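=== RUN LOG ===
request id: a7f3
mode: sequence -> structure
chains: 1
length: 130
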Amino acid sequence: MPWVLDYLSAHQSRRRKLHTVVVYIAEAHAADTWPMKFTVEWSTPKDLSERLRYAEACRAGLCIPDSIPIVADGMANAFNGAYAAWPMCYYVISPDKRLVYIGDSPDHSSAAYDVNQLFAFLDTELSGAP
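=== RESULT ===
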């Protein structure tokens, strides 16, 4: 996933002003509910500890460094329900805890999202940050 490398590279230059957290949400194509015959395909997690293991496997597979926290949505999928994060979205929350940016692709496909839009927004926002 080239966007991951683009994001990680851009994150390095903004690291002092930017706190990134990855939220692992429900499996989009769980093997037992919507199999797609992907290289990596997991069944729906049975509990939070299993979802957390999936999140860590995702970290390893996408080469997300340990310096970026990865957390998992709860089994009730509250984060995904509140933010409609499936299949992939980017959110910017201001220091005063306001949602100030939602990055999503026009057709809700992670492959179509241009992360440069996120970087441009961040550069504008962070240009005035101490």
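=== NOTES ===
The chain has four helices and four strands.
The chain has a mean pLDDT of 77.
=== END ===
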